[in-house]
Automatic annotation (TrEMBL):
Its EC number is 2.4.2.8. Its cofactor is Mg(2+). It comes from Holdemania filiformis. It is found in: Cytoplasm. This is Hypoxanthine phosphoribosyltransferase. It catalyses: IMP + diphosphate = hypoxanthine + 5-phospho-alpha-D-ribose 1-diphosphate; GMP + diphosphate = guanine + 5-phospho-alpha-D-ribose 1-diphosphate. Keywords: Cytoplasm, Glycosyltransferase, Magnesium, Metal-binding, Nucleotide-binding, Purine salvage, Transferase. Pathway: Purine metabolism; GMP biosynthesis via salvage pathway; GMP from guanine: step 1/1; Purine metabolism; IMP biosynthesis via salvage pathway; IMP from hypoxanthine: step 1/1. SUPFAM superfamilies: PRTase-like. One of its GO terms (molecular function) is guanine phosphoribosyltransferase activity.
Length: 179
């Protein structure tokens, strides 16, 4: 057990099992679509979730990455900046945006609007985690792994000051480690 870990909220088996369910659901819902979706994953937190999810999507999908920034430490710093844009065009494509967590909803709302502006045909969202109690803008994911309480979590891609992304579970740190 890592010395900074207070508790595990979701263990690896639970996360993998839920990714399998989400992958199967996405497969069913897109299988009769004209084209498979382009998965757009937001760096860096969504990488472990994307890696697990795509194993369970039985379609000829492709994926690309965007990097936007909104957080410093545990608090939002307002404006969302594009740090890395997509390599490919989204024009007339069905986009499945892959997020690790929806918190205030600001990132999702902004990125969804950006993709629509670039001509995406549809934009749906899959998120590993949702914190509905923290929402400040009216937006929901189309597919959610787990709703979690209003606690700052790390692991399975989620960081505190860039650390702990490699935990294979989602957990909460001891108070003294959030410093
Ligand atoms: O719903 P919101 O309040 O907008 O917050 C959610 C966003 O915040 C985190 O990103 P962050 O900017 O920390 O980047 P990271 O994925 O590189 O950690 C997380 O990955 C989401 O993208
Ligand atoms: N690591 C991490 N990033 C977040 N961004 C928004 N909420 C969270 C959270 O609970 N943990």
């Amino acid at each position: 057990m890592h010395p900074c870990l207070e508790k595990i909220l979701l263990n690896e088996d639970e996360i993998v099992a839920r990714c399998k369910e989400l992958g199967q659901q996405i497969t069913q819902e897109y299988k009769n679509n004209e084209q498979p979706p382009l998965l757009v994953a937001l760096l860096k937190g969504s990488v472990p979730f994307l890696a697990e999810l795509i194993k369970h999507i039985d379609l000829d999908i492709q994926f690309d990455f965007m990097d936007v920034s909104s957080y410093e430490g545990t608090e939002s710093i307002g404006d969302i900046k594009i740090i890395k844009d997509l390599d490919c065009s989204v024009k007339n494509l069905d986009i499945l945006l892959v997020e690790d967590i929806v918190d205030t909803g600001r990132t999702l709302k902004t990125v969804k609007a950006m993709l629509k502006n670039k001509g995406a045909k549809t934009v749906r969202v899959v998120t590993l985690l949702d914190k509905p109690d923290r929402r400040v803008v009216d937006i929901e994911a189309d597919y959610t792994g787990f709703e979690i309480p209003n606690e700052f979590v790390v692991g399975f891609g989620l960081d505190f000051n860039q650390k702990y992304r490699n935990f294979p579970f989602v957990g909460v740190l001891k108070e003294e480690c959030y410093k």
